[in-house]
């Protein structure tokens, strides 16, 4: 059973480094302990025994952004909170991913007025949007599995290229 | 009778008001909805009411923007000896510069609420110790709850927006709003260079405005910032703490990081649309929020609720209380370092109750279950048996587990006894409510003091403890779970058959007669009040929520002073805040 039976006698697998690294990354996401609003309660619930987020390899919530690589934006983002979220995102180390949990973080939700930013993607890049108000823990898990698929397809070159573009943009500004 | 004679009659009636004999000229008019008080004499009158008349509890402060004047409303009750509401109304006719004296010198509980009125309505309170914005950020232009405030992309006064579907077809509102983006910038303003004005926290740093550093020496006082991203602040709450060594010498709560102006949204919505928004106030106990809001509107509409619906409401509200207290206790232990284990036990039981909610309302968390006059849907088949099993068999065992695991724990005992003490008099003066008030030895429970729904039929004890510390708050919450189970047993036994809504066609639009109503319930976290002013239109004219945890935070500094910084976390945990409600 399992992987070892399918391996040839030598126990050697050839793959690309990219594939192997991405495989490791996608099953060890460290989410940031960062709850905003109602969705944060469902985020906590996803960690309890009935749902158990550790089945997806991402149960280690870190309180410091420097130790986390997944930010779950769980709730409405107000104008007062926006600079804080931007700063937290900037403090996280590459590679890093963002899940917009719930309709508020995705698109403002029912709160359409001066105080709320209509979607967290106005300030930070978002990888997966999760609908729901609030999404059930299962919906959050679906978002995580989607994110895992995305991570598996991650290209090192794209990240390097992205950094290059950013550097060029910064030079252009200066 | 002409208008003039009525006015004279009112004036003479007011002049002979008993309070005017003590504080001459204080009461200008005695209306059905309270006493109109002169702003010049209100402090004097308030002191008299507190000291001589027993109105020691300033429950709610809010304001209304009428076309001719701003009206600031104070709801007073008696907490030491329960008294019915006394409403003071101050009319400020100078709409350009509304100023009135602050009542914080009489009731400290008015502190945050007056700041909120200043922030959202722009009424200045003279003599307030720390009058600055509380929910919005420094540098915000305007006061959003004023009726003339037009926000960016403003469309129409009230929902449903006609502009969205002009000929049955959808259009982007932004393309056709008459106000366009409605944003105007000062000349030469550069958004990239703008920084919000820095808050100096002079008050807690003990820095004198005039002389700089008080004694002219460099002190060792430093500011420690906790939050808004901090694992133990229960959400995006921020505490700015001034410390000398480990000792807390000053504390300033900062909030508003979840502010979405629930009240502004509520004034734009129709009455029934608001029920869904109340779910998102205190998102751990949505059923209680529903109940408070529908009670307020039912008061205005004069609706009679069918018997079965009343019972269902009580059952839901008490189940919600159990959830809320289980989570509160669990996360209090989280703050003490018992990382997540007690919270997980609490969450496990919460799931079972949420299953019941889901079966009845269709949603786990955001139940949106109560309606004006009843509830949204009847209980499905088998629901009562499941609830009975939970209440009679499962939850009492869980409580036993909790007692065995937590209550006797030695570390817990030594960390909580004598920490964050509030005396009874202080708790009342700071307008504490719910378990916070009862843990300070004031057995005040809205369910008993002013019974709403059918709470007068049930037998239960009002739990209170004399100590006033974190331990007492924990104990009161645990005891209240037992009392909730007691109420649930009676309610499940007595649940009658029958309709769940008053007879008549179901309606999306309800007619609410003009008037004003304030309904308060004993929510899990304290006294939850909904203040609704109707002018007969489909939308409320003014809608205000008395958020218990917001007002309970008023005393946070008082409780924390003199303790170590590690205790600040525990004291905050015992307040049991939910930011959706604090920031609204």
What does this entry show, briefly?
By secondary structure, chain A is mainly alpha-helical. Helix content of chain A is 42%, strand content 7%. Chain A has a single domain, classed as Rossmann fold, CATH 3.40.50.12280.
Brief descriptors of the model:
heterodimer, A: 174 residues, mainly alpha, Rossmann fold, three-stranded parallel sheet, 7 helices, B: 584 residues, alpha+beta, Beta Polymerase, domain 2, Enolase-like, domain 1, Cytochrome-c3 Hydrogenase, chain B, 3 domains, five-stranded mixed sheet, three-stranded antiparallel sheet, 21 helices, 39% helix, 15% strand, globular
List the strand order in the largest sheet of chain B.
1-2-5-4-3
Helix content of chain B: 25-40%
CATH class of the largest domain in chain B: Mainly Alpha
Question: What is the percentage of strand-forming residues of chain B?
Answer: 15-25%
Number of domains of chain B: 3
CATH architecture of the largest domain in chain B, by name, is Orthogonal Bundle
Could you say what the CATH topology of the largest domain in chain B is called?
Answer: Cytochrome-c3 Hydrogenase, chain B
* Low-confidence sequence ranges of chain B: 208-213
* Secondary-structure element string of chain A: HHHEHEHEHH
Q: Distance between the terminal alpha carbons of chain B, to the nearest Å?
A: 46 Å
Radius of gyration of chain B: 25 Å
Average pLDDT of chain B, rounded to a whole number, is: 84
In quaternary terms, these chains amount to heterodimer
Structural class of chain A: mainly alpha
Q: What is the number of helices of chain A?
A: 7
């Amino acid at each position: 059973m399992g992987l070892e039976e399918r391996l040839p006698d030598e126990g050697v697998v050839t793959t690309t480094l990219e594939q192997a690294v991405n495989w490791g990354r996608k099953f060890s996401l460290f989410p940031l302990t960062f709850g905003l609003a109602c969705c944060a309660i469902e985020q906590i619930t996803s960690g309890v025994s009935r749902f158990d987020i550790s089945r997806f390899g991402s149960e280690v919530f870190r309180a410091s952004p420097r130790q986390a690589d997944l930010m779950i934006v769980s709730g409405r983002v107000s104008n007062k909170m926006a600079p804080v979220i931007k700063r937290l995102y900037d403090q996280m180390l590459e590679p890093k991913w963002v899940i917009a949990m719930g309709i508020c973080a995705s698109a403002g939700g029912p709160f359409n007025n001066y105080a709320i930013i209509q979607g967290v993607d106005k300030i930070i890049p978002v990888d997966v949007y999760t609908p729901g108000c609030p999404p059930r823990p299962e919906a959050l898990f679906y978002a995580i599995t989607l994110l895992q698929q995305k991570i598996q397809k991650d290209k090192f070159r794209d990240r390097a290229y992205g950094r290059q573009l950013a550097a060029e943009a910064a030079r252009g500004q200066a | 009778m002409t208008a003039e004679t009525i006015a004279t009659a009112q004036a003479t009636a007011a002049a002979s008001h008993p309070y005017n004999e003590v504080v001459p000229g204080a009461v200008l008019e005695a209306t059905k909805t309270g006493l109109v008080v002169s702003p010049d004499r209100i402090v004097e009158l308030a002191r008299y009411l507190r000291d001589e008349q027993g109105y020691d509890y300033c429950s709610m402060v809010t304001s209304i923007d009428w076309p001719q004047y701003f009206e600031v409303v104070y709801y007073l009750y008696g907490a030491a000896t329960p008294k019915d509401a006394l409403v003071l109304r101050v009319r400020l006719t100078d709409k350009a510069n509304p100023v009135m004296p602050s009542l914080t010198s009489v009731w400290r509980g008015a502190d945050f609420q007056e700041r909120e009125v200043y922030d959202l309505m722009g009424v200045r309170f003279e003599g307030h110790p720390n009058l600055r914005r509380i929910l919005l950020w420094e540098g915000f232009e305007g006061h959003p709850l004023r009726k003339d405030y037009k926000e960016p992309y403003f469309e129409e006064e009230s929902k449903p927006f006609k502009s969205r579907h002009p000929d049955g077809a959808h259009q982007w509102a932004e393309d056709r709003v008459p106000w366009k983006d409605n944003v105007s910038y000062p000349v030469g303003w550069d958004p990239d260079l703008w920084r919000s004005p820095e808050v100096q926290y002079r008050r807690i740093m003990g820095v004198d405005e005039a002389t700089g550093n008080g004694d002219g020496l460099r002190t060792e006082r430093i500011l420690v910032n906790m939050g808004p991203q901090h694992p133990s602040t229960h959400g995006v709450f921020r505490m700015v703490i001034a410390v000398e060594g480990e000792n807390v010498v000053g504390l300033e709560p900062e909030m508003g990081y979840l502010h979405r102006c629930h009240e502004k949204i509520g004034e734009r919505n129709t009455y029934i649309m608001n029920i869904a928004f109340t779910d998102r106030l205190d998102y751990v106990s949505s059923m209680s929020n529903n109940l408070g809001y529908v009670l307020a509107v039912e008061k205005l509409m004069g609706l009679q609720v069918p018997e079965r619906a009343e019972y269902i409401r009580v059952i839901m509200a008490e189940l919600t209380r159990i959830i809320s207290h289980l989570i509160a206790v669990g996360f209090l232990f989280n703050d003490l370092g018992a990382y997540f284990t007690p919270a997980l036990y609490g969450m496990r039981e919460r799931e079972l109750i949420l299953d019941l909610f889901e079966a009845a309302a269709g949603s786990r968390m955001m139940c949106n279950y109560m309606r004006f006059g009843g509830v949204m849907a009847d209980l499905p088949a088998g629901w009562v048996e499941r609830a009975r099993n939970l209440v009679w068999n499962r939850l009492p065992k869980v409580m036993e587990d909790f007692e065995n695991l937590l209550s006797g724990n030695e570390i817990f005992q030594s960390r909580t006894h004598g920490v964050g003490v509030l005396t009874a008099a202080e708790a009342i003066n700071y307008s504490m409510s719910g378990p916070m008030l009862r843990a300070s030895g004031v057995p005040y429970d809205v369910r008993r003091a002013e019974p709403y729904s059918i709470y007068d039929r049930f037998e239960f004890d009002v739990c209170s403890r004399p100590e006033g510390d974190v331990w007492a708050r924990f104990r009161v919450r645990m005891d209240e779970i037992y009392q909730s189970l007691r109420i649930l047993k009676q309610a499940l036994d007595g649940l009658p058959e029958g309709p769940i809504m008053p007879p008549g066609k179901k309606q999306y639009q309800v007619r609410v007669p003009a008037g004003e109503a304030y309904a308060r319930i004993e929510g899990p976290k304290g006294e939850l009040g909904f203040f609704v002013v109707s002018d007969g239109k489909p939308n409320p004219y003014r809608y205000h929520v008395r958020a218990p945890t917001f007002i309970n935070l008023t005393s946070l500094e008082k409780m924390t002073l003199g303790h170590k910084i590690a205790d600040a976390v525990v004291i905050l945990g015992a307040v049991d805040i939910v930011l959706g409600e604090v920031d609204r």
